[in-house]
Specification:
By secondary structure, this protein is mainly α. It has eight helices and no strands. The relative contact order is 0.15.
């Protein structure tokens, strides 16, 4: 008799979305871990990038300091798995990462004024690694957004919303900015030699 009740309970839980919550919650955790991994990769590149730029453009103190301070703000936020259950903490994390993205973009724009820096192999390697990391961040964020979307639909939809209320599953925050595409686009620096206008005949 006990076995029959257990089978019935398992059937009921499966039919009301309980298993779906388990699956999607794990997908969110895995996706979030990858987002953090790629953001950390970017953060690790910054000290070398700043030092390389400083070697050629030490006078750009405001821009260099902006990147360093933005990285420090990101580092001051405890990026734990619990962050995805706290909308306010998540928004703070997202804002800090956005500020760092902007600071890095300004830094790369400034480097256009220093031909020797642009031709430095170390800088070119770092810039390529940064661009690749920005691309991986975009991919990881998109996977996280999709996982959260699937989970949140289950939290809000009937009858799975009843299961969500019963077991305390709540809507999770996601990345949402006014111009997601623009912010997600990696900064681009053109290292091509400037075109010299043809002499007038």
């Amino acid at each position: 008799m006990r076995t029959i009740w257990m089978v019935l309970l398992a059937t009921l839980l499966g039919g009301c979305g309980y298993n779906t919550f388990q699956t999607t919650d794990e997908q969110i955790k895995a996706s979030w871990a990858e987002v953090l991994n790629q953001y950390q990769r970017r953060s690790d590149l910054i000290p070398n990038l700043v030092n390389t730029v400083k070697g050629f453009a030490a006078q750009e103190q405001t821009v260099l300091l902006g990147v360093t301070e933005a990285r420090a703000r990101v580092g001051s936020i405890q990026a734990t798995p619990e962050l995805i259950n706290d909308p306010q903490a998540f928004a703070k994390f997202q804002a800090a990462q956005g500020q760092l993205t902007s600071a890095l973009s300004r830094l790369l724009v400034v480097t256009e004024n220093y031909p020797q820096l642009k031709s430095d192999q170390n800088f070119r390697d770092l810039q390529a690694q940064l661009e690749g990391t920005e691309n991986r961040i975009t991919v990881a964020r998109n996977r996280y957004i999709k996982a959260v979307q699937e989970y949140n639909i289950s939290v809000r939809s009937f009858p799975t919303n009843l299961t969500a209320m019963l077991f305390g599953y709540k809507v999770k925050p996601s990345f949402a900015v006014e111009n997601e595409k623009e912010i997600s686009r990696p900064p681009i620096v053109d290292f091509a030699a400037p075109k010299v206008p043809a002499p007038a005949k």
